[in-house]
Amino acid sequence: RSSEELAGLFAVLTVTFRSIAFTASIHRGQVRVRFIGALEGLPQHVCDAIKLLEKETEHYSRAVMLVAVG
Fold it and tell me: How far apart are CA 50 and CA 31, in angstroms?
């Protein structure tokens, strides 16, 4: 993919992950979100959004959503 296309995709992922971190249904359902795979090579802003989402949901245990990256 072109660098412009990748930049756009990474921007969408960043916005989506940050949004999910503060989505009421995730917290109401006590869903823990975890990422599996290699984060190396992803832009820092995507990694930061991933870390935020994991941090905001780390104390939940009713359900776990695994997101594969890499």
Answer: 15
